[in-house]
Design brief:
305 residues; globular; 38% helix; 6-stranded mixed beta sheet; amino-acid biosynthesis; Rossmann fold; alpha/beta; 4-stranded parallel beta sheet; binds pyridoxal-5'-phosphate
């Protein structure tokens, strides 16, 4: 039977147990492969939820505008979903966004506007997105404050993990960007199993870890803490240096054949670190958030190939 709506391929991603990259204490490490989503990341889930909720709340119809501020996976996912509903996506990106990403967004049909990454600038990209939405009568989706982000992970990612493992999960590890994934998945798991350990992964010295926020891993927040993040469900924060995340993403590709991106490498580093503190034979789950294809330039610049 064929399926005529590509959005039906969002979610229901596979879970793989790693066999070469082994945690301590005989723990098992399972990874949910989110690059199996249509545009290659977990953000397809939230883009679908945020756009649908905007359509319901504001009665959007074909030709109406949705605006998002993002330079990464969410920009691509929002463009993909908006086009499916006949909406016009306007994506505000920081000026430093890679040329290839901007080209891809344009190819996919987005209108791309350049903003500034400095919050004190009048053209700060999040503020600019809000202004554009007002001026052009569109809806600013704002993944950093949109409850549909958390809901997507609570209702889909978490339920899938729970069902795929028949509830046998002891620890969930996830890098924190908007906090949508860890909050949605963590909340669901804790409601079903109170002692499941929820671990937040963050760049070394980030604000979340109480530091100045110098080290940077694309997709994870380093200088701010997103308002959606529910810190009450987090048991432990693990800091990961950028260089370790990078090395691990290469190990993932070469040793396991898992073509994950750099924040996925950080998730694995976090999982290995927490395994030292878990009961023997615990089951740890994390996400392979997106794919290495988004980071070829970065990897080439940083690693002797
Ligand atoms: C590559 C990457 N990793 C991790 C995350 C973190 O996910 P969340 O925003 O749900 O915290 C993001 C989010 O932007 C991302 O793009």
């Amino acid at each position: 039977m064929s399926v005529t709506d590509i959005m039906r391929f969002i979610g229901n991603t596979p879970i793989l147990e790693l066999t070469r990259i082994r945690p301590f204490n005989n723990c098992r490490l399972l990874v949910k492969l989110e690059y199996f989503n249509p545009t290659g990341s977990h953000k397809d889930r939230i883009a679908l939820y945020m756009v649908k909720s905007a359509i319901e709340k504001y009665g959007l119809k074909e030709g109406d505008i949705v605006v998002e501020a993002s330079s990464g996976n969410t920009a691509i996912s929002v463009t993909f979903i908006a086009k499916r509903f006949g909406l016009i996506p306007i994506i505000v990106v920081p000026k430093a966004t890679s040329v290839n990403k901007v080209r891809l967004l344009k190819l996919m049909g987005a209108e791309v506007v350049f903003g500034n990454e400095d919050p004190s600038s009048p053209n700060y990209y999040l503020k600019l997105a809000e202004d554009i939405a007002k001026e052009r009568g569109g809806v600013f989706l704002n993944q950093y404050a949109n409850p549909a982000n958390v809901r997507a992970h609570y209702e889909t990612t978490a339920v899938e993990i729970w069902n795929q493992l028949n509830g046998s999960i002891d620890c969930f590890v996830m890098g924190v960007g908007t906090g949508g994934t860890i909050t949605g998945v963590g909340r669901y798991l804790k409601e079903r199993k109170r002692d499941v350990v929820i671990v937040a992964v963050t760049p070394k010295g980030s604000k979340l870890a109480g530091g100045p926020g110098i080290d940077r891993i694309e997709g994870l927040l380093h200088k701010d803490i997103a308002p959606l993040l529910d810190r009450s469900i987090i048991d432990k924060v693990i800091e990961v240096p950028y260089s370790e995340a990078l090395d691990m993403s290469l190990r993932l590709v070469r040793d396991e054949g898992v073509l994950g991106g750099i924040s996925s490498g950080a998730n694995i580093v976090g999982a290995l670190k927490i395994s030292k503190e878990l009961e023997p034979r615990s089951t740890i789950v994390t996400l392979i958030v997106d794919s290495i294809f988004r980071y070829i330039d970065l990897l080439e610049q940083n690693i002797m190939m």
